[in-house]
């Protein structure tokens, strides 16, 4: 028979063999009760030293008990001390047929003698109740007389009683719903002891009232916010092993700091600490600051994040933050860890950064790259340029270079940023150009002038964001014990339970357990970025670099940058970054059927300035209201003749007249498609068919390839390189090699050649991507920074 056994501390173990005295073996290494001069045998001798022997009852002289009605030999009885479901001290006396429970009724602090009375006998009117005298933790006799109506309790009832007590302790402060507590308790009992054990537990309609009564009797009115119950200031642990959880508090500043000494000591040895604040998971008028340490496992050469400090704060000024950081520094100083080298990463809240630098030093505090990118995109949106960012590939690439600038070495960041700011895209629409100028002025003032470079330089960092803290707060708001704006008791109760879970996890990591795996996609991207860091570091240490080397490096770094929707959140459902998930580089074009490319005349549509929208749109590209309308105006006969003369080819005999003008948006789908042979020249064949008509590509695609390659050779000779070349340049090879390979008849067209065709032929080319269901524009007047080229001279 499988049963549960509980020790005095409340722990229970599964066992299945009963000894001849009715005792139970806890484990194979548990020693048998030693022989003693007294007639009773303890079930667990190690518990004797922890049994209190003092109370308030005087010493009494009791007559010797007569033989009990269910007389047993003394050597068949065993005992152990424990706690009742209400936390009182009890004595369990085990017989081969069951167990009797004696509750403590009196004791003498002087003589060390205490008395325990049978709880079952007390339920019936009787002249005498079975009583056991205990002298300094040793029962004088277990063989006492009981009332005839007294019943024994079996091991399963004892187990259910202990489970009930532990559930009450957890539910009392945590705010766990009674239904959830009962469901979990029943599941544990059923899977541990089967139906027989679970049936001994009270049914839900009875147990619910018990738990609700426990919670109502425990939760204080909290008229004073700085008068927490003492139990809430201690960790969740076995009785007698609780440790202080409230590190310190300031009623004047309105701050509670929760952290155990062990957590602070462990965090003192960490090399990186990330912090963030939230209002949603804190009571109204409060904020919650959490600090997370990176635990490094030498054995596994890997790390895992763990929360070690919670600060509940009334205000978010610099004085409050400095109080929290100073107290943490003082604790590390007392442990001899103040001078350990560690780095702190926060978002760009000025009060937080200043306080951290004052306490820990200016060289030990940095910002978050995600918040940097989010701030740039937010300002882009406020200037009414977000639709242009989503629809114009060249402007999109231009902004992405600005977002990648912090990944450069510190001495190159300002130099590269100024070079990018000095060469913005030249748009046809004057109002859009003015908005771009205002956006670039913001970037210059905010990041090159006002913000310290050390706060937004992420060169060679493997952890560049505070996303671990942001993610913790997001999950925290979904937790059933916290939700949104919990009361102070509910939040502190959750902190106790969460600290208990994290403490157990830290013990597992210290023991040598493997850190939990992280997102494999982000890990591959991060591994690729670290490889790019190393390669560029080697380059700048061995030779003099040019702006082209810098832009090639930034192009490789862009795979680590997030994409944003209009409301400022990242895009996860639709990825615009076309990278190989295995090596993190741009994917090669795939052979197969290629959709028609159509030439489109479009005047830029001015996007109004907008404020951030509080919506949850994941992909603005699919929203027809988020992008301008396009006017489809195919080239007429005169334009076709001009392009034929530019390419030095004759007009095809089977040239057909293109369809009439029409309007379309990003949400529109192609009405007709063509087909070109997948022989490596399909991109050039498609452009030829879109201009001259179906099946006209055979004599023209070669001339178009040669003209585009010659045009590219003239453009890459310009120093500094035109921005449109940098924006579309491939990251796998240098431009000269790329153009040389492109001259071959079987080399696939890339974005660079499509943009070059738009500039060379003076047409707008829009490419429909069937995977993402979007149009990618390549404008004929996007930039003015290129040399006019005449193919008649080739």
Mean pLDDT: 76
Please report which band the strand proportion falls in: under 5%, 5-15%, 15-25%, 25-35%, 35-45% or over 45%.
5-15%
Q: Tell me the radius of gyration.
A: 38 Å
Strand order of the largest sheet: 3-4-5-6-7-8-9
Organism: Steinernema glaseri
Protein name: MULE domain-containing protein
Short description:
The protein has 794 residues and is an alpha+beta fold. Helix 17 packs across helix 18. The termini are far apart.
Please give a handful of descriptors for the protein shown.
7-stranded mixed beta sheet, disordered N terminus, about 35% helix, 4 domains, alpha+beta, about 800 residues, disordered C terminus, 21 helices, single chain
What does this structure look like?
The N and C termini lie far apart (96 Å). The radius of gyration is 38 Å and the shape is elongated. Helix 5 (318-334) runs parallel beside helix 6. It contains 21 helices and 21 strands. With 794 residues, it is an alpha+beta fold. The strands form 5 sheets. The protein has a 7-stranded mixed sheet with strand order 3-4-5-6-7-8-9, with helices on one face. It has a 7-stranded mixed sheet with strand order 10-11-14-13-12-15-16, with helices on both faces. It has a 3-stranded antiparallel sheet with strand order 17-20-21. The chain folds into 4 domains: 3-153, no CATH class; 162-218, no CATH class; 230-368 and 465-511, no CATH class; 598-793, Alpha-Beta Complex (Cathepsin B, Chain A), CATH 3.90.70.80.
């Amino acid at each position: 028979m499988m049963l549960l056994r509980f020790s005095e501390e409340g722990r229970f173990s599964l066992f299945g063999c009963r000894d001849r005295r009715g005792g139970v073996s806890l484990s194979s290494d548990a020693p048998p009760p030693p022989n003693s001069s007294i007639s009773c045998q303890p079930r667990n001798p190690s518990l004797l030293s922890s049994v209190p022997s003092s109370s308030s009852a005087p010493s009494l002289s009791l007559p010797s008990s007569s033989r009990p009605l269910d007389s047993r030999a003394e050597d068949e009885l065993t005992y152990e001390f424990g706690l009742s479901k209400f936390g009182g001290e009890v004595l369990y006396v085990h017989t081969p047929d069951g167990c009797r429970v004696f509750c403590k009724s009196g004791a003498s602090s002087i003589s060390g003698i205490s008395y325990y009375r049978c709880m079952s006998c007390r339920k019936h009117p009787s002249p005498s109740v079975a009583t056991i005298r205990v002298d300094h933790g040793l029962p004088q006799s277990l063989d006492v007389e009981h009332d005839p109506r007294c019943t024994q309790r079996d091991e399963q009832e004892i187990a259910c009683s202990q489970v009930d007590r532990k559930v009450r302790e957890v539910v009392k402060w945590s705010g766990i719903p009674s239904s959830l507590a009962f469901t979990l308790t029943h599941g544990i009992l059923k899977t541990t002891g089967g139906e027989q054990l679970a049936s001994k537990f009270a049914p839900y309609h009875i147990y619910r009232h018990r738990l609700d009564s426990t919670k109502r009797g425990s939760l204080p009115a909290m008229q004073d916010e700085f008068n927490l119950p003492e139990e809430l200031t201690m960790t969740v642990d076995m009785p007698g092993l609780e440790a202080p959880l409230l590190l310190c508090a300031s009623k004047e500043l309105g701050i509670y700091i929760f952290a155990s000494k062990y957590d602070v000591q462990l965090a003192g040895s960490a090399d990186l600490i990330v912090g963030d604040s939230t209002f949603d998971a804190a009571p109204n008028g409060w904020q919650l600051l959490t600090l997370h340490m990176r635990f490094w496992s030498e054995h596994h050469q890997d790390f895992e994040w763990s929360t070690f400090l919670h600060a509940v704060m009334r205000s978010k000024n610099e004085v409050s933050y400095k109080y929290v950081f100073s107290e943490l520094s003082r604790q590390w100083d007392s442990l001899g860890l103040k001078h350990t080298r560690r780095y702190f990463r926060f978002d760009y809240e000025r009060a937080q950064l200043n306080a951290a630098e004052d306490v820990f030093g200016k060289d030990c505090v940095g910002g978050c790259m995600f918040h940097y990118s989010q701030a740039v995109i937010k300002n882009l949106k406020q200037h009414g340029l977000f639709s242009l960012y989503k629809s114009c590939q060249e402007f999109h690439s231009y902004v992405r270079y600005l977002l990648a600038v912090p990944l450069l070495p510190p001495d190159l960041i300002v130099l590269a940023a100024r070079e990018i700011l000095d060469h913005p895209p030249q748009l046809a629409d004057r109002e859009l150009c003015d908005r771009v100028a205002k956006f670039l002025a913001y970037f210059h003032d905010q990041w090159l002038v006002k913000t310290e470079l050390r706060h937004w330089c992420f060169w060679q960092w493997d952890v560049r964001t505070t996303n671990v803290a942001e993610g913790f707060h997001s999950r925290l708001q979904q937790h059933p014990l916290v939700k949104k704006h919990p009361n102070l008791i509910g939040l502190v109760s959750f902190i106790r339970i969460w600290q208990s879970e994290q403490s157990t996890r830290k013990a597992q990591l210290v023991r040598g357990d493997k850190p939990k795996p992280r997102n494999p996609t982000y890990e591959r991207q991060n591994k690729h970025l670290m490889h790019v860091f190393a390669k560029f570091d080697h380059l700048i240490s061995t030779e003099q670099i040019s702006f082209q080397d810098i832009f090639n490096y930034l192009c490789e770094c862009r795979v680590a940058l997030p994409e944003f929707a209009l409301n400022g959140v990242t895009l996860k459902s639709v990825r615009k970054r076309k990278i190989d998930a295995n090596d993190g580089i741009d994917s090669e074009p795939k052979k197969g059927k290629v959709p028609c490319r159509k030439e489109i005349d479009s005047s830029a549509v001015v996007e109004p300035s907008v404020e951030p929208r509080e919506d949850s749109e994941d992909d603005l590209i699919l929203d027809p209201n988020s992008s301008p309308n396009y006017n489809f105006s195919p080239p007429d006969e005169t334009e076709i003749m001009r392009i034929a003369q530019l390419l030095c080819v004759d007009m095809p005999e089977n040239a057909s007249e293109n369809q009439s003008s029409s309007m379309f948006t990003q949400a529109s789908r192609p009405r007709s498609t063509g087909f070109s042979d997948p022989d490596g020249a399909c991109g050039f064949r498609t452009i030829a068919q879109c201009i001259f008509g179906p099946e006209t590509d055979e004599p023209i695609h070669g001339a178009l390839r040669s003209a585009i390659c010659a045009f590219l050779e003239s453009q890459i000779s310009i120093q500094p390189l035109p921005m449109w070349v940098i924006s579309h340049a491939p990251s796998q090879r240098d431009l000269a090699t790329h153009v040389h390979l492109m001259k071959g008849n079987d080399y696939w067209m890339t974005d660079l050649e499509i943009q070059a065709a738009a500039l060379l032929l003076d047409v707008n080319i829009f490419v429909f991507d069937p995977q993402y269901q979007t149009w990618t524009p390549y404008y004929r007047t996007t930039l003015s920074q290129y040399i006019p080229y005449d193919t008649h001279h080739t």
